[in-house]
Design goal:
The protein is mainly alpha-helical and 521 residues long. The chain has three domains: 25-375, no CATH class; 382-416, no CATH class; 450-493. Helices cover 67% and strands 3% of the residues. It has a three-stranded antiparallel sheet, with no helix packed on it. Helix 4 (111-165) crosses helix 9. The longest helix is centred in the C-terminal third of the chain and has 91 residues, at 427-517. It is elongated.
Length: 521
């Protein structure tokens, strides 16, 4: 594949990378084996887990034939179902013996009453059990898709984004470090779900996902948030590298969003494992199933004894089938429900997490190894129409007049600065990085200069506003003083008028008194 991609359409040679190395297979103990019906995956514990199965062959062969042969059935994954079925068969046999050998024909137990109770229980037990099983399966699927699936998707998405933002052979080691952190987070998540606290297998002793120093740091972290801490490391490392390469913050946000989604997936898994279905509800469902099976096998034993005495052998055979099949069905569904309640264990039906890790590791390493060799990155992809040239000129920051001139055909669209995505060796790569850094520094200086000019203009406007505000305050104070003086004068005017009126009213009295004192003429 690398030989086919060694030359671009522009005639520039690209140095092909080496063939896939050991990075494409992380775990030495991982292996797969296939039988007639299923493919099994083996991890560090050596316990097999069902990775996939052949539905066509299973359907054509039949479930009865494969019940005790294929791995992953209710008979081969756990002996609980077999023990429960033997217990119910023994109960039915005891009821048959007690009735058939302990009672005569006249003292036979009325089986119709027992069958009525069994029929009543069987009328609603299937609905209750199906609802309980549907809830359990929905939680199991949600942990796979929205929990573990989000973490696995975030691992690949981060590598796709980082391979596009910082491409090149010299960054493969950095990309590989991100892959190791992501794989370590998944291993830590599975170990914590199983109650494990040992981190040393992830270090140089076995998996080589963490260094000795990192193992010591993670050991000091509580075992539940260890997986989330790994994604905080991924976010911190990515942000540091992107800032060193002057990648805009809007593109850094995409990386951080993937890390946050991975943490959300880890939190969802812990929420489902830590918040089970209500205990009283589960206990009621199980006790109803057990009671229904017990009443059913007892009634079938009684009916079987009566059928053998009357010679109804066909009906007796149907009772034997009921004793075997009905408890097997109900107990099998209960067994499936408790096995998938925590799918991160070592049971046969649990998630084959190491198989998922190997696939995601292969995809992430392939993206890091071959993304920067894409032949299209060396092509001169440019529009041909003048209208698109006009839009591109505006997007590149040219003035409207310059864009109109390009649209009219007077001038041509300037060629963009072309930095090859394939790292060049020797002085050419250094010159390219220096040119990129010079342009970035010039752009940053222009931005700072514009910001300083804006700050100076705003400061000048603030000074003008302060002087205008001071003049306005002085005018307001003068107006307030004049209004106060006028109001004082208006208040004093009524008292002067009252004193004058009182003086005029006392004048007639004085004149009349003086007229009385004059002598008669």
């Amino acid at each position: 594949m690398a030989d086919k991609m060694s030359k671009t359409q522009t005639g520039k040679d690209k140095k092909a990378v080496a063939a896939p190395d050991s990075r494409f297979k992380r775990f030495d103990k991982f292996r797969q084996s296939s039988n007639s019906f299923a493919t099994l995956a083996y991890g560090h514990s050596g316990q097999p887990k069902v990775l996939k199965y052949d539905l066509t062959k299973l359907t054509k062969t039949g479930a009865i034939i494969t019940a005790f042969v294929a791995k992953g059935t209710v008979f081969t994954m756990d002996n609980t179902v077999v023990v429960s079925c033997l217990t119910y068969i023994g109960t039915g046999a005891m009821s048959f013996v007690m009735v058939y050998f302990g009672m005569n024909q006249d003292g036979m137990v009325d089986a119709n009453k027992l069958q009525g109770i069994a029929d009543y229980l069987n009328s609603f037990i299937p609905f209750i059990l199906s609802l309980y099983l549907a809830l359990t399966l929905a939680r199991w699927w949600k942990m796979r898709v929205d929990g573990l699936g989000k973490v696995l998707d975030a691992m690949q998405n981060v590598l796709v984004l980082m391979s596009a933002l910082v491409p090149g052979k010299e960054y493969i080691e950095f990309h590989d470090r991100l892959v190791k952190y992501a794989l370590a987070s998944i291993s830590l998540l599975v170990d914590s779900c199983r109650g494990g606290t040992d981190v040393t297998p992830l270090g140089p002793k076995r998996d080589h996902l963490l260094t000795a120093e990192e193992v010591i740091l993670i050991t000091d972290v509580p075992y539940r948030p260890r997986a989330a801490v790994m994604w905080s490391w991924i976010a911190a490392v990515c942000v540091q590298v992107l800032e060193e390469h002057a990648i805009p913050s809007c593109k850094q946000r995409d990386i951080l969003l993937q890390c946050v989604q991975a943490r959300d997936g880890i939190s969802l898994i812990w929420s489902h494992l830590g918040t089970q279905l209500p205990f009283a509800y589960v206990h009621l469902v199980i006790i109803l199933v057990n009671l229904s099976n017990l009443v059913m096998v007892t009634s079938c034993g009684v009916v079987l004894a009566g059928d053998l005495r009357t010679g109804d052998y066909i009906h007796a055979a149907s009772q034997v089938m009921f004793i075997v099949v009905i408890p097997l069905l109900y107990q099998g569904l209960l067994a499936v429900s408790y096995i998938i309640s925590n799918p991160f264990g070592d049971d046969l039906l649990d998630f084959p997490v190491m198989a998922y890790q190997e696939y995601c590791n292969e995809a992430a390493c392939a993206v890091s190894e071959y993304s920067f060799l894409c032949p299209a990155t060396g092509m001169d992809i440019a529009p041909t129409s003048l209208s698109s040239h006009h839009a591109i000129a505006l997007r590149r920051g040219l003035a409207i007049k310059e864009a109109d001139a390009i649209h009219a055909g007077v001038s041509s669209l300037p060629a963009p600065l072309n930095f090859s995505r394939v790292p060049r060796m020797g002085n050419a790569g250094k010159e390219e990085r220096m040119a990129r850094q010079t342009l970035i520094e010039a752009a940053l200086r222009d931005q700072l200069r514009l910001k300083d000019e804006v700050i100076q203009a705003l400061q000048q406007q603030n000074r003008l506003l302060d002087s205008s505000l001071s003049a306005t305050m002085e005018r307001i104070q003068k107006i307030e003083l004049r209004v106060t003086n006028r109001a004082t004068s208006l208040v004093a005017l009524p008292s002067n008028c009252a004193s004058r009126i009182s003086s005029f009213s006392s004048l007639p009295c004085a004149v009349s008194a003086q007229s009385k004192m004059l002598p008669a003429t």
